[in-house]
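ugh ok so i messed up the first submission bc i forgot one of the chains. this is the corrected input, ALL of the components this time, i swear. 680 residues overall. if the numbers dont match what u have on ur side tell me asap before i send this to the collaborators (the ones from the other lab, u know who)
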Amino acid sequence: MTVRTEPGRRWNSQTLLAAALLIVGGLLLWSAVRAEGDFGLQGPRLAPVVITSAWVVAAAVHLIMQLRPRPEAQEEARAGEEHEPDRPGWLAPLGVLAALAGFAIALEYAGFVVSAALFTVVTARVLGSRNLLRDVIVAIVLPIAIYLSFTRLLDIFLPAGVFPL
Amino acid sequence: MNVFGDLLSGFGTVLQPEYLLFAAIGVTLGTFVGVLPGIGPALTIALLLPVTFSLDDPIGTFIMFAGIYYGAMYGGSTTSILLNTPGESASVATAIEGYQMARRGRAKAALATAAIGSFVAGTISTLLLSLFAQPVAKLATTFRAADYFALALLAMVAVTALVGRSLVRGLLSLIFGLFLGVIGIDGLTGQARFTFGTMELLEGIDVVVVIVGLFAIGETLFVASRMRSLPEHITPLEPGSSGKGWLTRDDWRRSWGPWLRGTAVGFPFGALPSGGADVPTFLSYTYEKHRAKNRAEFGKGAIEGVAGPEAANNAAFSGVLVPLLTLGIPTSATAAVMLAAFQIFNLQPGPQLFDRSPELVWALIASLYVGNVLLLALNLPLIRVWVKVLQIPRPILYAGILVFATLGVYASTGSVNQVFIAYGIGVIGFGMRHFDFPIAPVILGLILGPMMELQFRRALLVSNGDLTVFVTRPLTAILLGLVVVALLVPYLPRIVARLRGRSTDTKRLTFAEED
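and heres the new structure output, hopefully the right one now
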């Protein structure tokens, strides 16, 4: 039945995540145990070991709860199905991330105003804006206003870059 | 000096034009971000932290921050009522009845009862704060390291257990926050922990970086992933023509009870480590629904269901300030950011704060009275302006949030690498939202974890490594006992049902997430 496959898929990604959390927790615990230093009650090594141990235990419990079929889980899955039209897209978040990375790299070379202006136009586009003129106006006015108020009024350094101000 | 003398001198400070301006900026900004869905007071204050580097005036800064927190509580109700999208998680309960009232053309009555209720609750609870703060601070001077350890543990566990849908998910979020907290050089011995050989992590991960990552970057990525269900423009309901339509005599009669009861619930719950305003707003809603004579009207726009939760939500904020100012223990994400702000100014909230900087404390408390009046004046007459704010196109809004987020991290750390760490945490935050993990416990773990570790080691130093120090003092033992109770409370309905031999179909108690 097609109705069954949909909750199954959702359920699987949660299980995979729980397993991944367990593995990451295990690796961190391993690195905490192997670290050098005083392993006493007052030493610096106790907290990392305690925290990562708790991580492993919580992740294990989470995994077990995900693997155990419960009526609640089916209910949740059914509730998830109702949100079917909201199925997340991956393109837009990836686009936003790419724009962010470009922004951060360009920040120190091109300066705040130019990089922020480009970033605003691109991101508004990725997020579904279809009004280019409005975006461009905002993208020019907003960064210049921020730049001037931060550097002139608040004395906070922002990279000027290629923009002669 | 007695409380009234202190408070009077606090008013003397706040009523200076310069500080009135700070208060006005704070409440305006707070209402603005409260109205906008997606950004809350925690993120706003975190983004403003770099600005405070250049303001060498802690009093003005904290007056502004308190205004933001308060304003966000007021502004959240507008979005809930007109849009049915709570701007703040503490306004979720308001949306239930408020939106129904608006749909029936009673938007102005709903907005009015929310604003006036917030004012009443804010004023009463600030009065309670003025009366309680100093006695609690006095009491807190007798607290020892072991007590602080137990208190921090209680605050963390209580928030984690009460917030969100599943205890295990909440605990995983909390543990992630604790993990972020130990990264970097250990303050007592200088040993590097979880730095993986990089220089960038030696200083630890800054609170600003984590909050911007989780609340700004993570939130925007989450919104982006659900773009298709997101219209570019949103059309809030019309608040109705000006002039007529505010509260009728009947509305007043039905509202004042819930206002007072909401305050009575909100203040203590804010003061207790229960995660701010979410729990009391839902308690107030449930209680009003339960005791109302016209229960059939609930779900169709009962004014009691707006008045109660809104009052509770504002009263909780003054409550949150009690442990924050007197003990230095934050009980909500926003309080945690405010604690970070205190540390920027080299101020340590706690019992000594009342002795060392009384003018700051009392100016802050006096500013709450002033802020309440300003907000009442700002909200009702200017409601059309705030409706305009709701119409900012989403793509531009989120692009702007990301610009401010990047700017905030860069300005406070001066390093592009830190910006990338914030982006990385943002990706994790997106994953947490996607897989339904609560965010607030991460912040509390990050702030309270190092505090807890320090007090633990301090307590053991005093006792020469004797672990019984945590159970021999009655106060410490009681606090640790409450930790266990907090873990069990969400399962109480199920346990009771099982004890009575019924089937266990009752779900665990849950509350919406704090932000």
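quick check: Residues 2-34 of chain A form the longest helix (33 residues). that seems consistent at least. Chain A touches chain B through 71 residues (CB under 8 Å).
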